[in-house]
Amino acid sequence: MSALTFTMKHRFDQRVDMSPLVCNKLEGLTPVEIAAIELQNGKRKIRVDELFRIKGSDIQNIVIEGSFSKLDFIGKQLDGGSITIHGDVGAYLGQEMKTGTIKVDGNAGIYAACEMKNGYLEIKGNAGDFLAAALPGNKQGMKGGTVLVKGDVGERAGDHMRRGTLLIEGNAGDYCGSRMVAGTIAVMGQTGRYLGYAMRRGTLLLWNQPQLSATFNDCGSHTLAFLPILFASFMKLNSKFSNRSVAFNRVQRYAGDMSELGRGEVLVKI
After folding, report:
1. At CA 164, angle to CA 160 and CA 167, rounded to 5?
2. Is residue 195 a contact partner of residue 214, using CB atoms and an 8 Å limit?
3. Nearest alpha carbon to residue 20 among 99, 63, 61, 77
4. Cβ atoms 159, 179 nearer than 8 A
5. 8, 62, 171, 240: which sits with the fewest CB atoms below 10 Å from its CB?
6. Cβ neighbours of 162 (radius 10 Å)
7. In angstroms, what is the C-alpha Rg of the chain?
């Protein structure tokens, strides 16, 4: 079977809620039934076949061609299967994703991977604010899985992050790892202000010296045996993180945020 492919016919001015088009929700539906699904488009609803040309029948492998930045909620609550997107995506990519794989060729909007539970999400371009964070009013962000961003990310990446791994090849904006509860965030590029603001636990792994607040304590330089094991787990990824030349085990360690529990750590390559 060939992948179930949605090719965009034309772009609308209003945003489109793509949450019905996930593998687990399409199971058992015929092509005619899939074409008749209604998507929220601003104040009105439109049929899938009004927006996309549809071909293929493998609902476990969904492809979206010609995607653009007003397609929101792609992969929401995905529970198995894969979604491949050629182009940019809007907000809430992979929200509450349970299992499966999502890959995006372009950029992603705000709240990508928010409250993600498991699975693998890859963004080849940049990601907006609140990557892997909690929804407004909630206290737990990303809870598991792996997110890889090959470009830059906006502010508040990993806000309220609970568990999982967030890998950023580019730069991260202000408040990266803010209010972090647990998990690992690795940033190869530069980081902005207020890194680890109010973080309780978790690890921030950095290749460049950050601007740290006075509420982080310098714990000196260390050789950490777990880092080679961590980098070995990245070897399966199609990423700079899988390159042996970027791995290290000697770090400067900072503990904080001391205004909270103070059990978090910032590890900076020496």
Report:
1. 95
2. no
3. 77
4. yes
5. 240
6. 22
7. 19
